[in-house]
Amino acid sequence: MRAQLSESAGSGHKVIGCAERMLPGSSAAVEPDDGFRFRGLLAFEDPVRPGVRDAVEACRGAGIRVVMVTGDHPETAAAIGREAGLGGGAPKVVVLDDGAAGAALADATRHVDIVARATPQQKLELVKALQAEGELVAVTGDGVNDVPALRQADIGVAMGERGTRSAREVASIVLLDDNFRTVVVAVAEGRQLFMNLRLAFAYLVLVHLPLVVGAAAIPLMGLPLLYLPIHIVWLELVIHPTAMLAFQDLASSDSLAAVERQRRARFFSPGDWWRLVCVGSLSCTLVVWGYLHAFGIDKDVAHARAMSMSILLLCSAAYAAALTGLRQPVARWIVACTLAPLVLLVQVPALSAWLSLSPLHLADWGLAAAGAVMAYVGTRWLARGLSNRAPAGESSSELP
Questions:
Q1: Which of 195, 197, 189, 163 is nearest to 178 (CA)?
Q2: Confidence (pTM)
Q3: Which phi-psi region, left, alpha or beta, contains residue 393 (left: φ > 0; alpha: ψ -120 to 50)?
Q4: What do you get for the CA distance between the two ends of the chain, in Å?
Q5: CA distance 166 to 158
Q6: pLDDT computed for residue 278 by the predictor
Q7: Does residue 302 register a pLDDT over 80?
Q8: What is the domain partition of the chain in residue ranges?
Q9: Could you give the CA distance from residue 172 to residue 366 in angstroms, rounded to a whole number?
Q10: DSSP string for 16-37
């Protein structure tokens, strides 16, 4: 019988032992615990859903730790873990002591892939222990036994198809298809959304730094104002549509890339801020230098304003192109709608005079374009740094 039990459990079946006992006519006062006669075993199979193995492998590659915590027999859990790809197909299984708790509990499971014969209290204590070590813990579950861990987790994910009502009520997220791959897709989309927000904010910082610095530095030098009200309106008609539209449709991916994990919640890391300051300072220098260069000995204010405006708008297009990669049509349209009006409003004398500008020479456009190229290269450097970091605090996934 034990051989049959091991064979069934080793093939991933949940095994239930059945026994019988005759009871007296009157109902028993307590639950009988002896006198039973063994009748046989029932073996149930709950196959791993398609795509789970690939999803687990994606999590491993992205630095997200996946642990299966179950009340099943160790051999059953090991068979399911192998099929799901836990531990690279050779999962390490542990059965916890009843008295394990706190740091000892977390240490006991630090290098394992499966915790078998786990009780609801042990699941809860395991989540608390991991959180105490600074881990961000996500728990998936479908039964009443999972409710304490689902409630305690940073992110509780309940199964919507076969999950109990209590599990769905305490969870933060309910999966409608009960597929672990959906969790991985959600993490990938969440990362992309967070990245889109950071890219949009980075664009706003980069484009406003030269705008503000130029508007303040030029008058402080005793020179005529750089921006007139009509110029501010023009710039805002470019900046805000770019920030709102160019970054919202960036292509997302169902796959998870390896990223640098962060312990503290930060929108930008100190390194990101350093890159932002470096690229923004370059643009500030270009805008102010462009004004002084074009102002020259002739003190041509219209020419100076046209030069600075052209540099700033070319840098804005360079920022958008570098941060979006021009992968989406809307980003390409945004860049085109920035550049085409710029050439038209500066080079057509009637329009440039209306904006208190004057047409630029070919050499001026060459200098402005060179500045935009430098801004593009610097922004690509910034974008690479942003893409190497996970959303703040993301660290681990714990799956009962």
A1: 163
A2: 0.74
A3: left
A4: 29
A5: 9
A6: 93
A7: yes
A8: 2-45, 52-184+395-399, 189-387
A9: 55
A10: EEEEE----SSPPSS---S--E
Mean pLDDT of the chain: 84
Reading the block at residue 59, the tokens are 């999590």
Residues sharing a CB contact under 8 Å with residue 244, sequence separation 6 or more, in sequence order? 200
Structural fold of domain 189-387: Calcium-transporting ATPase, transmembrane domain (1.20.1110)
The closest alpha carbon to 173, from 193, 159, 190, belongs to 159
Of 1.10.10.10, 3.40.50.300, 3.40.50.1000, 3.40.50.2300, the CATH number of 52-184+395-399 is 3.40.50.1000
- CA-atom Rg of the chain in angstroms: 31
Listed residue (142, 218, 179, 183) closest to 48, CA to CA: 179
Q: What is the pLDDT of residues 118-146, one digit of tens each?
A: 888 888 888 888 888 888 889 988 888 89
Where helices occur in 91-179 by DSSP H, the ranges are: 102-108, 120-132, 147-152, 165-170
Q: Where are the beta strands (DSSP E) in the chain?
A: 13-20, 37-45, 65-69, 93-95, 114-116, 138-141, 155-159, 173-175, 396-399
Which one-letter DSSP state was computed for residue 393? T
Tell me the C-alpha distance between 125 and 369, whole Å: 60
Instruction: Please count the other Cβ atoms lying within 10 Å of the Cβ belonging to residue 358.
Output: 19
Segment 29-51, tens digit of pLDDT? 667 778 888 888 888 777 777 77
Q: What is the SS3 assignment for 303? A: helix
Residue with tokens 């001026």: 364
CB 207, CB 239: distance < 8 Å = yes
Encoded tokens for 105: 């509990």
